[in-house]
Amino acid sequence: MKDIKVLGTGCANCKATVKLVEEVANAKGVEIALEKVEDIQKIMTYNIMSTPAVVIDGQVVHAGGIPARSKVESWF
Amino acid sequence: MDNPRSFPMKHPKTLLLLMVGLWWGIYQTLIPLSEFIVQLFPIERDSKLGSALQFFFYDTPKVLMLLTGVVMVMGMVNSYFTPERTRAILAGRREGVANGMAASLGIVTPFCSCSAVPLFIGFVQAGVPLGVTFSFLISAPMVNEVALTLLFAMFGWKVAGLYLGMGLMIAIFSGWIIGRLNMEEHLEDWVRNMPKVNADFDTADLTLSDRLQAGFTSVREIVGKVWPYILAGIAIGAGIHGYVPEDFMASFMGKDVWWAVPASVLAGVPMYTNAAGIIPIVEALLAKGAALGTVLAFMMSVIALSLPEMVILRKVLKPKLIATFIGVVASGIILVGYVFNAVL
Fold first, then answer.
1. Which residues of A touch B (CB under 8 A)?
2. Which structural domain, as residue segments, surrounds residue A51?
3. Which CATH number do you get for residue A29?
4. What does the pLDDT look like over A7-66, one tens digit per residue?
5. In terms of Cα–Cα distance, which of B301, B289, B274 is closest to B150?
């Protein structure tokens, strides 16, 4: 099971990212534990400068804007 | 477009040249094309309705094409200026020249208002001076390519140039003043206690086709989002001419009304919309006799000072620094509004 966090202060792009990750994981039948991190202090511990960002098993794999679907697919 | 390794993407230079040629070719045919379309209607070309239609059929594709072109180019330029790179350029610099650099970088660095706080902290953490960070933070939303393109398309290069110059000046001086006030202690404690980071960044070597891809993405995201506002703006511009008296707004927002500039700035703070959303309003105000300085001040206030952004910034800035930020920027905008009303 992959542990996935979406970092973002709650803007439209962040919500779209969460939805996209869920969709792709479902489509590929991958089990994930998805968490939305909205607290800015927690977000900043990942050393990123643009949101939304995606963290998989502690690794930042994406920052800034909604990731492309092909990029999300490559994570699973 | 979805498959980056498709045939045209293997020949990015050819693709780029083709696109530029095609764009230019279509742009040249806009006037004859709009005349042709108007002829298809059973309306006198020289009638009021006829010229309004021609205006609409010419202006709509013109503005959309200009916007697509500029957003495409900016999408490619943005790919050179990631936030990380901008931070590395600004880190450790002294205030002064760095304020000007920060304000200019604010134009070319991709920026979304929801990233304002992470960006702010990331800059401060890497040792970018507070005032320089503010110069960036003010210029990034205010001076953006959509606002400039629309101003250029609708009011000409002088108004667009004025807006650019004014925006940069406000960003540079507001940041400089905030830097002079030594307000570092008014950052929230947890921000000041964050570990300092190095401004190093990984250079991701992008190819031309990656940059083209970035351009396409921003066209899809930005033009795809703002075109309804632009249609509304042009329709308002074409439509209201006959129905509202020309000097209707002059009595509220004309040059002779001394309180118009501060009132416009105040009215703009609680309003929040992006550059595209405000242009229809700007168009309507100007067409009805409002003074240019007043209207531009209103526009800057709506874009640069917004309540939702303040609520987010409050998590990293103590009230005194937020108040200073709003006060300095608002004063700058008011001053610029007065100056332009006086000069023009």
1. 8-11, 13-14, 40-41, 43-44, 47-51, 64-65, 68, 70
2. 2-69
3. 3.40.30.10
4. 987 777 888 889 999 999 888 888 888 888 888 888 888 888 888 899 998 888 888 778
5. B274
The angle at the Cα of B328, spanning B326 to B331, to the nearest 5 degrees, equals: 100
Count of structural domains, chain A: 1
Please report where in the chains the tokens 């963290």 appear, as a residue: A55
- In what side-by-side order are the strands of the sheet with A2-7? A32-37, A2-7, A53-56, A59-63
Q: Give the β-pairing of A2-7 and A32-37.
A: parallel
**CB–CB contacts below 8 A, A to B:** 54
- Whether residue B82 is predicted with pLDDT greater than 80 in this model: the reply is yes
- The ipTM (two decimal places) reads 0.81
